[in-house]
Amino acid sequence: MQRIIEILTNKNKTIATMESCTGGALASAITDIEGASEIIKFSAVTYSNEYKIKMGVDPNVIDKYSVYSKETAIEMAHNISEFAGSNYGIGITGKLNRVDKNNPFGEDNKVFICIYDKDKLQDYLLEVLATEKSRKDNKELVINEIIKKLLEIF
Known about the structure:
By secondary structure, the protein is an alpha/beta fold. The protein has helices spanning 2-11, 25-31, 49-54, 59-65, 70-84, 135-153, and strands at 15-19, 40-45, 88-94, 110-117, 122-129. It contains six helices and five strands, in the order αβαβαααβββα.
């Protein structure tokens, strides 16, 4: 994460996150590093559909594809980038070791991630299988995959 912050700082670029199943773990990992205030614009944890929608996710996307889908992750990434005025937006949604009675659709133990580069109008999509036993370990797994992808993008 240190390298991500250095790269974004040097490029004078910013990032914003909208997280669901990771519960702010990505924002926490970013803000654990000195200098993060230079690059992180805003972060939202939108566990419920209601707050995803309040943050701009189209309810028709949730209805058509489910809240646990790449389409919802794309909506999250685009909307948080727009809301925060950041160069990059990251949307994360999925299931970590649990069945959601309020949202019975979507694959169990799969996390969908979109990294949106607003300057290039480019989406980078990831799907991560949450195969670890604990939620904490699965969150770490997701964050590590995002770090790897960001380093590829930059």
